[in-house]
Amino acid sequence: MNGEYYKTKESVDEYIKLAEEYDGRALIDKLRDFLPANSYLLEIGSGPGTDWKILNDFFNVVGSDYSAEFLKRLNAGAPKGDFLDLDAVTLTTRKKFDGIYSNKVLHHLTDIELVASIKRQCAILNPGGVICHSFWRGEGTESYKGLFVNYHSNEGIESLFADYFAVVFLENYKEFDDNDSILIIGRKK
Fold it and tell me: How many Cβ atoms are within 10 Å of 17's Cβ, its own excluded?
């Protein structure tokens, strides 16, 4: 999926330092409008566990990551937590969920990989299940230290999810700059 960036101790340390002042609390608050408390939720790409901790205040959360280094840290920091080694494209698990959440994770996928992930998310969600994902808004793709980033438009994101999810919320928000991010929430068709 994304080269070696999240696989080394040094790059994980760097990412944690870059992201230490950011969390998805506002996104999670919006998700709570659509997903009942105590629902069984999968977080794709738990990374340092910042959002995982917030999500646990409201839902029964299974965290996941595809980085062995992040998983090692997640398990050490939350020994009672449930964490899966999951690729965001294939999502190989037999578990079923009421909701799936990610914060700036799925933008690391090409459009073809994202569609495969969306299909798989639909398959592992219970009927009426909810997805909540954030993406960087913009055009084109770029690579940062070998880390692929795929920018999206509101219309593009909506069309990628449309075959599998009824979009119930789609809005731009500010992470660093006005309207630099997109939040989509959808309900399984």
Answer: 10
Domain ranges of the chain: 5-188
| pLDDT digits 0-9 by tens, 159-180 | 999 999 999 999 999 999 999 9
Contacts of 18 (CB under 8 A, 6+ apart): none
- Residue 71 contacts residue 65 (beta carbons within 8 Å): yes
Ramachandran angles phi, psi of 87, nearest 5°: -80, 130
Contact 162, 131 (CB under 8 A): no
pLDDT category, 46, cuts 50, 70, 90? very high
CATH architecture assignment, domain 5-188: 3-Layer(aba) Sandwich (3.40)
Which tokens hold the place of 174? 């500010």
Tokens found for residue 171: 């809005």
More confident residue, 123 or 11: 123
The label of the residue with tokens 């029964």 reads 60
Under 8 Å between Cβ of 132 and 187: no
| Angle between helix 68-77 and helix 9-19 axes, rounded to 10 deg | 60
The Cα diameter of the chain in Å comes to: 42
